[in-house]
Specification:
The protein is α+β, with helices and mostly antiparallel strands. The protein folds into two domains: 337 residues, no CATH class; 108 residues, Sandwich (Immunoglobulin-like), CATH 2.60.40.10. The protein contains 15 helices and 18 strands. The termini are far apart.
Length: 483
Protein backbone atom coordinates (compact mmCIF):
# COMPACT_ATOMS: atom_id res chain seq x y z
CA UNK A 1 0.00 0.00 0.00
CA UNK A 2 1.36 3.39 -0.91
CA UNK A 3 2.21 5.70 1.95
CA UNK A 4 0.54 9.14 1.81
CA UNK A 5 3.50 10.70 3.63
CA UNK A 6 6.17 9.22 1.37
CA UNK A 7 8.63 11.45 -0.47
CA UNK A 8 7.24 14.78 0.68
CA UNK A 9 9.58 17.34 -0.90
CA UNK A 10 10.79 19.48 1.96
CA UNK A 11 13.95 21.29 0.90
CA UNK A 12 16.30 23.83 2.43
CA UNK A 13 18.96 25.82 0.62
CA UNK A 14 22.46 26.00 2.08
CA UNK A 15 25.39 27.82 0.59
CA UNK A 16 28.84 26.40 -0.12
CA UNK A 17 31.78 27.92 -1.93
CA UNK A 18 32.47 26.59 -5.43
CA UNK A 19 35.83 26.39 -7.22
CA UNK A 20 35.68 30.14 -7.86
CA UNK A 21 35.20 30.73 -4.13
CA UNK A 22 31.68 31.99 -4.83
CA UNK A 23 28.74 30.77 -2.73
CA UNK A 24 26.39 28.40 -4.55
CA UNK A 25 23.03 27.09 -3.36
CA UNK A 26 22.75 23.39 -2.49
CA UNK A 27 19.34 21.82 -1.84
CA UNK A 28 19.14 19.31 1.00
CA UNK A 29 16.08 17.35 2.12
CA UNK A 30 14.90 17.83 5.69
CA UNK A 31 12.57 14.83 5.49
CA UNK A 32 13.77 11.27 5.42
CA UNK A 33 12.02 9.35 2.65
CA UNK A 34 10.07 6.44 4.00
CA UNK A 35 11.41 2.99 3.37
CA UNK A 36 9.29 -0.03 4.14
CA UNK A 37 10.53 -2.04 7.11
CA UNK A 38 10.41 -5.80 6.71
CA UNK A 39 10.44 -7.03 10.28
CA UNK A 40 12.19 -10.34 10.80
CA UNK A 41 10.58 -12.91 13.09
CA UNK A 42 12.41 -13.50 16.36
CA UNK A 43 12.11 -15.96 19.23
CA UNK A 44 13.15 -15.44 22.81
CA UNK A 45 11.98 -14.67 26.32
CA UNK A 46 11.09 -11.04 25.58
CA UNK A 47 9.23 -11.93 22.39
CA UNK A 48 7.26 -14.55 24.33
CA UNK A 49 6.33 -11.91 26.89
CA UNK A 50 5.28 -9.52 24.15
CA UNK A 51 3.08 -12.21 22.57
CA UNK A 52 1.44 -12.87 25.92
CA UNK A 53 0.73 -9.16 26.37
CA UNK A 54 -0.82 -8.97 22.89
CA UNK A 55 -3.17 -11.83 23.72
CA UNK A 56 -3.93 -10.45 27.18
CA UNK A 57 -4.75 -6.91 26.03
CA UNK A 58 -6.95 -8.15 23.19
CA UNK A 59 -8.68 -10.66 25.43
CA UNK A 60 -9.57 -7.81 27.79
CA UNK A 61 -10.58 -5.31 25.07
CA UNK A 62 -12.52 -7.73 22.87
CA UNK A 63 -13.92 -9.86 25.69
CA UNK A 64 -15.05 -7.37 28.35
CA UNK A 65 -18.21 -6.26 26.48
CA UNK A 66 -19.48 -9.86 26.47
CA UNK A 67 -19.32 -10.29 30.26
CA UNK A 68 -22.64 -10.03 32.13
CA UNK A 69 -23.34 -8.76 35.65
CA UNK A 70 -26.80 -9.03 37.24
CA UNK A 71 -28.64 -9.32 33.92
CA UNK A 72 -26.80 -6.42 32.32
CA UNK A 73 -23.51 -5.87 30.52
CA UNK A 74 -20.71 -5.79 33.09
CA UNK A 75 -18.86 -2.88 31.44
CA UNK A 76 -21.26 -0.50 29.74
CA UNK A 77 -20.81 3.22 29.17
CA UNK A 78 -24.46 4.24 28.91
CA UNK A 79 -24.17 7.76 27.51
CA UNK A 80 -27.89 7.95 26.76
CA UNK A 81 -28.80 7.56 30.43
CA UNK A 82 -25.60 9.28 31.61
CA UNK A 83 -24.20 6.45 33.71
CA UNK A 84 -21.26 4.05 33.43
CA UNK A 85 -21.52 0.47 34.68
CA UNK A 86 -18.26 -1.10 35.83
CA UNK A 87 -19.30 -4.49 37.21
CA UNK A 88 -20.90 -3.73 40.63
CA UNK A 89 -20.01 -0.03 40.43
CA UNK A 90 -22.23 2.55 38.73
CA UNK A 91 -20.64 5.91 37.92
CA UNK A 92 -22.94 8.91 37.52
CA UNK A 93 -22.11 12.40 36.18
CA UNK A 94 -21.66 13.57 39.77
CA UNK A 95 -18.92 10.93 40.18
CA UNK A 96 -16.76 12.10 37.31
CA UNK A 97 -14.20 13.30 39.84
CA UNK A 98 -13.20 9.63 39.90
CA UNK A 99 -12.44 9.84 36.19
CA UNK A 100 -10.07 12.72 36.89
CA UNK A 101 -8.49 10.68 39.69
CA UNK A 102 -8.09 7.70 37.36
CA UNK A 103 -6.38 9.83 34.72
CA UNK A 104 -4.04 11.31 37.32
CA UNK A 105 -3.19 7.81 38.59
CA UNK A 106 -2.50 6.69 35.03
CA UNK A 107 -0.25 9.70 34.42
CA UNK A 108 1.80 9.39 37.62
CA UNK A 109 1.95 5.63 37.21
CA UNK A 110 3.35 6.08 33.71
CA UNK A 111 5.84 8.69 34.94
CA UNK A 112 7.06 6.43 37.75
CA UNK A 113 7.31 3.37 35.52
CA UNK A 114 9.14 5.29 32.78
CA UNK A 115 11.66 6.63 35.29
CA UNK A 116 12.30 3.10 36.54
CA UNK A 117 12.21 1.00 33.36
CA UNK A 118 11.97 3.27 30.33
CA UNK A 119 9.44 2.69 27.55
CA UNK A 120 8.16 -0.77 28.51
CA UNK A 121 4.61 0.58 28.07
CA UNK A 122 5.39 1.33 24.42
CA UNK A 123 7.04 -2.01 23.79
CA UNK A 124 4.44 -4.28 25.32
CA UNK A 125 1.01 -2.72 25.94
CA UNK A 126 0.63 0.42 23.82
CA UNK A 127 -2.34 -0.09 21.42
CA UNK A 128 -0.20 1.08 18.49
CA UNK A 129 2.44 -1.56 19.28
CA UNK A 130 -0.14 -4.29 19.94
CA UNK A 131 -2.11 -3.66 16.75
CA UNK A 132 1.07 -3.31 14.68
CA UNK A 133 2.25 -6.66 16.02
CA UNK A 134 -1.05 -8.26 14.98
CA UNK A 135 -0.81 -6.73 11.51
CA UNK A 136 2.74 -8.08 11.17
CA UNK A 137 1.50 -11.54 12.17
CA UNK A 138 -1.14 -11.35 9.45
CA UNK A 139 1.50 -10.23 6.95
CA UNK A 140 3.86 -13.06 7.90
CA UNK A 141 1.06 -15.64 7.78
CA UNK A 142 -0.08 -14.61 4.29
CA UNK A 143 3.15 -13.54 2.57
CA UNK A 144 5.79 -15.54 4.44
CA UNK A 145 8.99 -14.62 6.23
CA UNK A 146 11.08 -11.48 5.72
CA UNK A 147 12.95 -12.65 2.62
CA UNK A 148 9.76 -13.85 0.94
CA UNK A 149 8.04 -10.50 1.61
CA UNK A 150 10.96 -8.56 0.15
CA UNK A 151 11.03 -10.82 -2.91
CA UNK A 152 7.25 -10.48 -3.35
CA UNK A 153 7.35 -6.68 -3.26
CA UNK A 154 10.22 -6.57 -5.74
CA UNK A 155 8.53 -8.97 -8.17
CA UNK A 156 6.40 -7.66 -11.09
CA UNK A 157 2.64 -7.60 -10.84
CA UNK A 158 1.03 -11.03 -11.17
CA UNK A 159 -2.16 -12.82 -10.23
CA UNK A 160 -0.37 -14.48 -7.30
CA UNK A 161 0.93 -11.14 -6.01
CA UNK A 162 -2.53 -9.60 -6.29
CA UNK A 163 -4.08 -12.58 -4.46
CA UNK A 164 -1.60 -12.39 -1.58
CA UNK A 165 -1.87 -8.60 -1.23
CA UNK A 166 -5.67 -8.69 -1.43
CA UNK A 167 -5.84 -11.46 1.18
CA UNK A 168 -3.44 -9.66 3.53
CA UNK A 169 -5.23 -6.32 3.39
CA UNK A 170 -8.64 -8.02 3.52
CA UNK A 171 -7.71 -9.76 6.79
CA UNK A 172 -6.33 -6.50 8.17
CA UNK A 173 -9.58 -4.70 7.32
CA UNK A 174 -11.67 -7.48 8.90
CA UNK A 175 -9.63 -7.31 12.10
CA UNK A 176 -9.91 -3.52 12.13
CA UNK A 177 -13.70 -3.75 11.74
CA UNK A 178 -13.79 -6.22 14.62
CA UNK A 179 -11.99 -3.71 16.86
CA UNK A 180 -14.42 -0.97 15.78
CA UNK A 181 -17.41 -3.22 16.49
CA UNK A 182 -16.01 -4.06 19.94
CA UNK A 183 -15.42 -0.39 20.75
CA UNK A 184 -19.04 0.53 19.97
CA UNK A 185 -20.06 -2.50 22.07
CA UNK A 186 -18.90 -0.65 25.17
CA UNK A 187 -21.48 2.10 24.53
CA UNK A 188 -24.31 0.13 22.90
CA UNK A 189 -24.91 -3.32 24.45
CA UNK A 190 -22.85 -5.64 22.29
CA UNK A 191 -25.54 -8.31 22.22
CA UNK A 192 -27.93 -5.80 20.67
CA UNK A 193 -25.25 -4.96 18.10
CA UNK A 194 -24.80 -8.63 17.32
CA UNK A 195 -28.55 -9.07 16.71
CA UNK A 196 -28.51 -6.04 14.42
CA UNK A 197 -25.43 -7.23 12.50
CA UNK A 198 -27.15 -9.57 9.98
CA UNK A 199 -29.51 -6.76 8.92
CA UNK A 200 -26.83 -4.06 9.42
CA UNK A 201 -29.49 -2.26 11.44
CA UNK A 202 -27.18 0.21 13.17
CA UNK A 203 -27.71 3.86 13.93
CA UNK A 204 -25.74 6.44 11.99
CA UNK A 205 -23.54 7.20 15.01
CA UNK A 206 -22.81 3.51 15.57
CA UNK A 207 -21.76 3.12 11.93
CA UNK A 208 -19.63 6.26 12.12
CA UNK A 209 -17.67 5.17 15.20
CA UNK A 210 -17.22 1.61 13.95
CA UNK A 211 -15.75 2.84 10.68
CA UNK A 212 -13.81 5.64 12.38
CA UNK A 213 -12.02 3.36 14.84
CA UNK A 214 -11.57 0.60 12.27
CA UNK A 215 -10.20 3.06 9.73
CA UNK A 216 -7.61 4.45 12.13
CA UNK A 217 -6.65 0.96 13.30
CA UNK A 218 -5.96 -0.04 9.70
CA UNK A 219 -4.23 3.23 8.81
CA UNK A 220 -2.00 3.52 11.88
CA UNK A 221 -1.19 -0.15 12.50
CA UNK A 222 -1.54 -1.57 9.02
CA UNK A 223 -0.02 1.20 6.88
CA UNK A 224 1.92 3.78 8.90
CA UNK A 225 3.23 1.54 11.68
CA UNK A 226 6.61 2.81 12.90
CA UNK A 227 5.94 6.31 11.51
CA UNK A 228 3.39 6.83 14.28
CA UNK A 229 6.11 6.18 16.89
CA UNK A 230 8.65 8.32 15.04
CA UNK A 231 6.63 11.36 14.03
CA UNK A 232 3.23 11.39 15.78
CA UNK A 233 3.63 10.00 19.30
CA UNK A 234 4.27 12.80 21.85
CA UNK A 235 5.51 10.33 24.45
CA UNK A 236 8.70 9.77 22.48
CA UNK A 237 9.43 13.49 22.62
CA UNK A 238 9.09 14.07 26.35
CA UNK A 239 10.37 10.73 27.64
CA UNK A 240 13.86 12.21 28.08
CA UNK A 241 12.45 14.44 30.84
CA UNK A 242 11.70 11.31 32.90
CA UNK A 243 14.88 9.40 32.04
CA UNK A 244 17.99 9.62 34.17
CA UNK A 245 21.28 7.75 34.34
CA UNK A 246 19.67 5.03 36.50
CA UNK A 247 16.71 4.33 34.19
CA UNK A 248 16.64 0.78 32.86
CA UNK A 249 17.05 0.98 29.07
CA UNK A 250 18.06 -1.28 26.19
CA UNK A 251 21.75 -0.71 25.54
CA UNK A 252 24.48 -2.05 23.30
CA UNK A 253 27.73 -2.78 25.16
CA UNK A 254 30.11 -0.90 22.90
CA UNK A 255 33.22 -1.78 24.92
CA UNK A 256 32.52 -5.47 24.46
CA UNK A 257 31.14 -5.35 20.93
CA UNK A 258 33.58 -3.04 19.14
CA UNK A 259 35.27 -3.19 16.77
CA UNK A 260 32.60 -5.20 15.06
CA UNK A 261 33.23 -7.45 12.09
CA UNK A 262 32.51 -10.78 10.48
CA UNK A 263 34.38 -13.93 11.42
CA UNK A 264 34.07 -17.70 11.27
CA UNK A 265 32.62 -19.63 14.15
CA UNK A 266 35.23 -20.91 16.59
CA UNK A 267 37.85 -18.32 15.63
CA UNK A 268 39.60 -16.44 18.44
CA UNK A 269 38.21 -13.05 17.51
CA UNK A 270 40.06 -11.24 20.28
CA UNK A 271 43.41 -12.20 18.75
CA UNK A 272 42.23 -10.56 15.54
CA UNK A 273 41.37 -7.36 17.37
CA UNK A 274 37.59 -7.78 17.05
CA UNK A 275 34.75 -7.39 19.52
CA UNK A 276 31.84 -9.71 20.14
CA UNK A 277 29.58 -8.08 17.52
CA UNK A 278 29.77 -10.02 14.24
CA UNK A 279 27.97 -7.21 12.37
CA UNK A 280 25.17 -9.53 11.20
CA UNK A 281 22.60 -6.67 11.42
CA UNK A 282 19.92 -9.07 12.67
CA UNK A 283 19.25 -6.69 15.58
CA UNK A 284 18.26 -4.10 12.96
CA UNK A 285 16.16 -6.55 10.94
CA UNK A 286 13.99 -7.50 13.94
CA UNK A 287 13.44 -3.90 15.10
CA UNK A 288 9.83 -2.81 14.41
CA UNK A 289 10.92 0.83 14.02
CA UNK A 290 14.02 0.05 11.97
CA UNK A 291 16.71 1.61 14.17
CA UNK A 292 20.22 0.34 14.87
CA UNK A 293 20.54 0.07 18.65
CA UNK A 294 24.33 -0.08 18.22
CA UNK A 295 24.24 3.64 17.47
CA UNK A 296 23.08 4.33 21.04
CA UNK A 297 19.70 5.03 22.61
CA UNK A 298 17.35 6.81 20.20
CA UNK A 299 13.96 8.37 20.84
CA UNK A 300 12.39 6.01 18.28
CA UNK A 301 13.25 2.95 20.41
CA UNK A 302 10.05 1.56 21.93
CA UNK A 303 11.78 -0.81 24.35
CA UNK A 304 10.35 -4.01 22.86
CA UNK A 305 13.65 -5.90 23.38
CA UNK A 306 13.40 -7.77 20.06
CA UNK A 307 17.05 -6.85 19.45
CA UNK A 308 18.01 -8.50 22.76
CA UNK A 309 16.36 -11.79 21.77
CA UNK A 310 17.97 -11.67 18.32
CA UNK A 311 21.44 -10.84 19.62
CA UNK A 312 21.29 -13.47 22.37
CA UNK A 313 20.38 -16.08 19.74
CA UNK A 314 23.39 -15.06 17.63
CA UNK A 315 25.67 -15.13 20.68
CA UNK A 316 24.47 -18.66 21.49
CA UNK A 317 25.25 -19.84 17.96
CA UNK A 318 28.70 -18.25 18.06
CA UNK A 319 29.44 -19.68 21.50
CA UNK A 320 29.75 -16.22 23.12
CA UNK A 321 28.17 -15.11 26.38
CA UNK A 322 24.79 -13.38 26.17
CA UNK A 323 24.16 -9.73 27.01
CA UNK A 324 25.91 -7.82 24.23
CA UNK A 325 22.57 -6.03 23.94
CA UNK A 326 20.70 -6.01 27.24
CA UNK A 327 18.56 -4.11 29.69
CA UNK A 328 20.86 -2.01 31.83
CA UNK A 329 21.37 1.57 33.00
CA UNK A 330 23.70 4.27 31.78
CA UNK A 331 25.60 4.29 35.05
CA UNK A 332 25.93 0.51 35.15
CA UNK A 333 27.13 0.41 31.54
CA UNK A 334 29.73 3.06 32.37
CA UNK A 335 30.95 0.94 35.28
CA UNK A 336 29.84 3.31 38.03
CA UNK A 337 28.34 0.35 39.88
CA UNK A 338 27.85 -3.37 39.19
CA UNK A 339 24.69 -4.41 37.37
CA UNK A 340 23.54 -6.48 40.33
CA UNK A 341 22.91 -3.17 42.14
CA UNK A 342 20.53 -1.83 39.47
CA UNK A 343 17.37 -2.66 41.39
CA UNK A 344 18.72 -1.09 44.56
CA UNK A 345 18.86 2.22 42.65
CA UNK A 346 15.08 2.31 42.26
CA UNK A 347 14.77 4.17 45.57
CA UNK A 348 15.73 7.62 44.29
CA UNK A 349 13.94 10.96 44.80
CA UNK A 350 12.16 11.15 41.44
CA UNK A 351 10.72 7.65 41.70
CA UNK A 352 9.72 8.14 45.32
CA UNK A 353 7.95 11.41 44.53
CA UNK A 354 5.96 9.93 41.64
CA UNK A 355 5.10 6.87 43.74
CA UNK A 356 4.03 8.99 46.72
CA UNK A 357 1.71 11.14 44.58
CA UNK A 358 0.29 8.01 42.96
CA UNK A 359 -0.41 6.36 46.33
CA UNK A 360 -2.02 9.53 47.73
CA UNK A 361 -4.40 9.93 44.80
CA UNK A 362 -5.16 6.21 44.62
CA UNK A 363 -5.72 5.96 48.36
CA UNK A 364 -8.00 9.00 48.45
CA UNK A 365 -10.05 7.62 45.55
CA UNK A 366 -10.46 4.19 47.15
CA UNK A 367 -11.46 5.68 50.53
CA UNK A 368 -13.93 8.00 48.80
CA UNK A 369 -15.49 5.08 46.93
CA UNK A 370 -15.78 3.03 50.12
CA UNK A 371 -17.45 5.90 52.01
CA UNK A 372 -19.68 6.86 49.09
CA UNK A 373 -23.35 6.81 50.07
CA UNK A 374 -25.58 4.45 48.09
CA UNK A 375 -27.75 7.27 46.72
CA UNK A 376 -27.46 10.87 45.58
CA UNK A 377 -29.91 13.76 45.59
CA UNK A 378 -30.23 16.94 43.53
CA UNK A 379 -32.71 19.68 44.52
CA UNK A 380 -34.10 21.96 41.82
CA UNK A 381 -36.47 24.85 42.55
CA UNK A 382 -39.55 25.34 40.42
CA UNK A 383 -38.72 28.67 38.77
CA UNK A 384 -42.16 29.02 37.18
CA UNK A 385 -43.86 29.85 40.52
CA UNK A 386 -41.53 30.88 43.32
CA UNK A 387 -44.22 31.18 46.00
CA UNK A 388 -47.99 30.84 46.24
CA UNK A 389 -50.58 31.05 49.05
CA UNK A 390 -52.65 27.97 49.93
CA UNK A 391 -56.34 27.95 50.89
CA UNK A 392 -55.28 27.71 54.53
CA UNK A 393 -53.19 30.89 54.15
CA UNK A 394 -49.82 29.15 54.27
CA UNK A 395 -46.99 29.91 51.81
CA UNK A 396 -45.93 27.16 49.46
CA UNK A 397 -42.76 26.58 47.37
CA UNK A 398 -42.38 23.76 44.86
CA UNK A 399 -39.20 21.74 44.33
CA UNK A 400 -38.11 18.85 42.14
CA UNK A 401 -35.93 16.30 43.89
CA UNK A 402 -33.91 13.96 41.69
CA UNK A 403 -32.95 10.84 43.63
CA UNK A 404 -30.26 8.60 42.14
CA UNK A 405 -29.99 5.02 43.37
CA UNK A 406 -26.35 3.98 42.85
CA UNK A 407 -26.80 0.42 44.13
CA UNK A 408 -27.91 -2.80 42.44
CA UNK A 409 -31.01 -3.08 44.69
CA UNK A 410 -34.26 -1.14 44.74
CA UNK A 411 -34.49 1.47 47.52
CA UNK A 412 -37.36 3.28 49.26
CA UNK A 413 -36.90 6.88 50.44
CA UNK A 414 -38.63 9.23 52.88
CA UNK A 415 -38.39 13.03 52.52
CA UNK A 416 -38.50 15.57 55.34
CA UNK A 417 -37.38 19.20 55.68
CA UNK A 418 -36.30 21.57 58.43
CA UNK A 419 -35.00 25.10 58.79
CA UNK A 420 -38.29 26.90 59.53
CA UNK A 421 -40.78 26.10 62.31
CA UNK A 422 -43.70 23.79 61.46
CA UNK A 423 -42.59 23.06 57.88
CA UNK A 424 -44.88 20.72 55.94
CA UNK A 425 -43.53 18.48 53.17
CA UNK A 426 -46.08 17.18 50.67
CA UNK A 427 -45.13 14.66 47.99
CA UNK A 428 -47.02 12.34 45.66
CA UNK A 429 -46.38 9.49 48.09
CA UNK A 430 -44.80 9.14 51.49
CA UNK A 431 -42.33 6.51 50.30
CA UNK A 432 -40.59 6.95 46.99
CA UNK A 433 -39.17 3.80 45.38
CA UNK A 434 -36.24 3.98 42.96
CA UNK A 435 -35.20 0.97 40.87
CA UNK A 436 -31.59 -0.34 40.92
CA UNK A 437 -29.06 2.00 39.24
CA UNK A 438 -31.92 4.25 38.17
CA UNK A 439 -33.07 7.75 39.06
CA UNK A 440 -36.46 9.22 39.89
CA UNK A 441 -37.72 12.81 39.89
CA UNK A 442 -40.16 13.68 42.67
CA UNK A 443 -42.21 16.88 42.88
CA UNK A 444 -42.25 18.13 46.47
CA UNK A 445 -44.35 21.00 47.87
CA UNK A 446 -43.08 22.68 51.05
CA UNK A 447 -45.51 24.82 53.10
CA UNK A 448 -44.54 27.30 55.83
CA UNK A 449 -46.42 29.57 58.25
CA UNK A 450 -46.32 33.20 56.95
CA UNK A 451 -45.36 34.51 60.38
CA UNK A 452 -42.05 32.60 60.09
CA UNK A 453 -41.60 32.73 56.32
CA UNK A 454 -41.27 36.49 56.07
CA UNK A 455 -40.35 38.29 52.87
CA UNK A 456 -37.08 37.16 51.38
CA UNK A 457 -35.11 33.94 51.20
CA UNK A 458 -34.84 31.48 54.09
CA UNK A 459 -32.40 28.58 54.24
CA UNK A 460 -33.99 25.15 54.59
CA UNK A 461 -32.61 21.61 54.43
CA UNK A 462 -34.14 18.55 52.80
CA UNK A 463 -33.37 15.26 54.53
CA UNK A 464 -33.74 12.22 52.31
CA UNK A 465 -33.47 8.95 54.22
CA UNK A 466 -33.41 5.40 52.91
CA UNK A 467 -35.94 3.16 54.60
CA UNK A 468 -33.80 0.17 53.59
CA UNK A 469 -30.87 1.64 55.53
CA UNK A 470 -32.36 3.87 58.28
CA UNK A 471 -28.92 5.06 59.36
CA UNK A 472 -28.19 6.48 55.90
CA UNK A 473 -29.50 9.88 54.90
CA UNK A 474 -28.51 12.75 52.63
CA UNK A 475 -29.05 16.41 53.53
CA UNK A 476 -29.35 18.96 50.72
CA UNK A 477 -29.50 22.71 51.27
CA UNK A 478 -32.05 24.87 49.47
CA UNK A 479 -34.03 28.07 50.09
CA UNK A 480 -37.65 28.96 50.84
CA UNK A 481 -39.05 32.19 49.39
CA UNK A 482 -41.46 34.06 51.65
CA UNK A 483 -43.54 37.19 51.09
Amino acid sequence: MSNPFENIPIKVETYKKNSDHQPSAVSESLYESHRKIYVRAVKGIFNTGRVWFVWLTQLVFLGLPWLMWDDRQAVHFDLLNRKFHLFALTIWPQDFVYLAAFLMCAAFGLFAWTTIAGRLWCGYTCPQTVYTEIMIWIEQWVEGDRNKRIKLDQSPFSLRKFRLKFTKHGLMVLFSLWTGFSLVGYFTPIRDLSLALPRFDFSSWEIFWMLFYAGFTYLLAGAMREQVCKYMCPYARFQSVMFDADTLIISYDEQRGEPRGGRKRGVDYQSEGLGSCIDCSICVQVCPVGIDIRNGLQYECIGCAACIDACDDVMDKMGYSRGLIRYTTENALAGNYPEKEIFSRIKRPRVLLYSLLLLIILGASVVSLILRKPFKVDVIRDRAALVRETDEGWLENTYILKIINTTEQAQDFRITADGLPQLKVLADSKNIQVAPTESASVTVRVQADPQYATKGSHAIHFVIASTNHPDLSVEEKSSFIGE
